[in-house]
Write a structure and sequence with these properties.
single chain, 196 residues, mainly alpha, elongated
Length: 196
């Protein structure tokens, strides 16, 4: 399944593949069900990551680099304007939401119901999805961080404030860190952040 997932990733990320559809065959119903879920879980991020990269690049080109906290709103505005709400939801909603009735309606008719709560639900989880791409999932697969496409750089003033806050607490709670300087605590926090 992992090899197939890599091949799917290559096919879906090719600029020559404008019709991103896939049929996978298996000789076992149980294997087919497992692989379908596995492929769906792996491939939806292949839409999310390049879309994020485009939003980040556009902001960078305009001379207004984005903060991690501003990225979800910029992403939503950028893609909703270009795709419309129906296509936006169908392209970027994680497969964990496939059971929702509004998504079934969208898949069957091509349109969300007028009173759909799906856009709000998606906007509620979008910050988590984006932050996890730069956090806990930053080193799993071909992420924006792993490919060198994007990175998060901590604000130096806030890092210094955090270092000044954490230094006395570390020195007070750990006797072997009594001589810890502000500079040392800043290096410690930088190392910790780089491992996230």
């Amino acid at each position: 399944a992992s090899l197939a997932s890599v091949m799917i990733g290559q096919i879906y990320s090719s600029r020559f593949n404008q019709d991103r559809k896939l049929i996978a065959f298996s000789d076992s119903v149980q294997d087919a069900a497992h692989r379908a879920g596995f492929f769906a879980a792996r491939t939806w991020k292949l839409n999310l990551r390049p879309a994020l990269a485009q939003v980040i690049a556009a902001a960078q080109d305009s001379g207004m680099p984005l903060t991690l906290s501003a990225l979800p709103q910029a992403f939503a505005e950028h893609w909703q304007d270009r795709l419309g709400m129906d296509h936006y939801i169908s392209n970027f909603l994680p497969p964990q939401f496939s059971w929702l009735r509004d998504l079934e309606t969208l898949n069957e008719t091509g349109h969300l119901p007028p009173d759909s709560s799906l856009p709000k639900k998606f906007n509620d989880i979008l910050p988590w999805l984006i932050q996890s791409e730069f956090g806990q999932e930053a080193h799993i697969g071909r992420t924006l961080i792993a490919t060198g496409t994007a990175e998060v750089i901590p604000d130096s003033a806030r890092l210094l404030l955090a270092s000044q806050w954490v230094q006395p607490r570390l020195a007070e709670n750990f006797s072997f860190l009594k001589e810890l300087s502000i500079n040392d605590s800043e290096q410690l926090l930088s190392a910790l952040i780089s491992q996230m």
